[in-house]
Design goal:
The protein is of the alpha+beta class and 290 residues long. It has helices spanning 5-23, 38-49, 61-71, 88-93, 99-108, 132-141, 145-151, 156-169, 227-239; strands at residues 55-59, 78-82, 112-119, 122-124, 127-131, 173-179, 182-195, 199-200, 204-205, 217-223, 248-253, 255-260, 265-268, 271-275, 278-289. Helix 3 links the parallel strand 1 and strand 2.
């Protein structure tokens, strides 16, 4: 688990979880992450050392992504106690926000197989974002105000503040997009979001019809807009009401390649995972989740 997820909320939640596990006489062991990618290492170690009934991630989307990168392709299910600022993966799967309900789901629920995405040698759970999105993710993760918003449990606002800061200087780029071997040449692209689940950025509904069990990725392309048009469209994206805009394309596919006229940042689940060119694919039914 991540002690500092949600600005320290993760540790508070763990103390409550530990008390409940002891009350229910449930056997467990716990590992605390202190650096990037450590959760993946912990999972790999646990898989070799002992047979775990379930591996539970207590944290946000970044922590969950690390755990998933150790679990994909195994039969050990993932349990989730949401404790981050965004919690988009748990939101997309309908995992309760309340601790007792989330824990009860882990103890009593049945595992189900879901799809997971893969990009730049990293598995991702929710969304890969390219362009404007990538810069917003980088700005958010480096910001002071993210911690401040987490303190008042309004972490999603850090994404909006970062979006405003990036918007001031961002210039759309020409993109070449290959979707299942079909080539699209798209000028003046603001962003491309490739989604396994509908939500990112703390509840923004970027791909409303994305499902984690259909063997497909949903692709949202926002292009050809002036800055004023982009500003007018952005509030629609928050609620998923943007899909009918003539400057927004919604496409589904299994394999996506993205090339830009100059390198663009790429994020997966809100964490920077490289830059373009990038290749993205779906890994159908590759992760058990409770």
């Amino acid at each position: 688990m991540n002690k500092v997820s949600g600005n320290g909320r993760g540790m508070k939640i763990w103390r409550q979880i530990e008390k409940r596990l002891q009350e229910k006489n449930v056997s467990y062991c716990v590992r605390f992450t202190q650096k990037s990618k450590q959760a993946t290492s912990f999972v790999n170690e646990l898989m070799k050392e002992e047979k775990a009934a379930v591996i539970v991630a207590v944290g946000g989307d970044g922590t969950i992504q690390e755990v998933v990168n150790g679990l994909v392709g195994t039969k050990t299910p993932l349990g989730i106690i949401p404790a981050g600022s965004g919690n988009d993966f748990s939101r997309g799967l309908g995992i309760p926000k309340k601790l007792d309900q989330a824990l009860e789901r882990i103890l009593q629920g049945k595992p189900k197989l879901i799809d997971i995405g893969y990009a730049n040698s990293t598995y991702f759970c929710t969304v890969v974002g390219v362009g404007f999105d990538g810069e917003v993710a980088q700005t958010t993760n480096a910001s002071i105000f993210k911690k401040l918003f987490n303190m008042i449990r309004m972490g999603h606002l850090s994404y909006l503040v970062s979006a405003i800061n990036v918007f001031i200087h961002y210039k759309p780029r020409d993109i070449s997009l290959m979707i299942d071997k079909k080539l699209y040449k798209i000028p003046k692209v603001w962003l491309i979001a490739v989604a396994n689940l509908p939500f990112y950025g703390g509840g923004i509904i970027i791909c409303p019809k994305a499902e984690s069990n259909d063997g497909l990725l949903d692709i949202c392309i926002i292009q050809g807009m002036s800055k004023w048009e982009f500003v007018r469209t952005f509030p629609l994206v928050l609620k998923g009401n943007h899909v009918s805009s003539p400057n927004i394309k919604m496409i589904k596919g299994k394999e996506i390649e993205i090339y830009a006229s100059s390198p663009l940042l790429v994020h997966g689940d809100g964490e920077i995972i490289g830059q373009t060119p990038t290749k993205i694919r779906i890994e159908p039914r590759s992760l058990y989740v409770i």
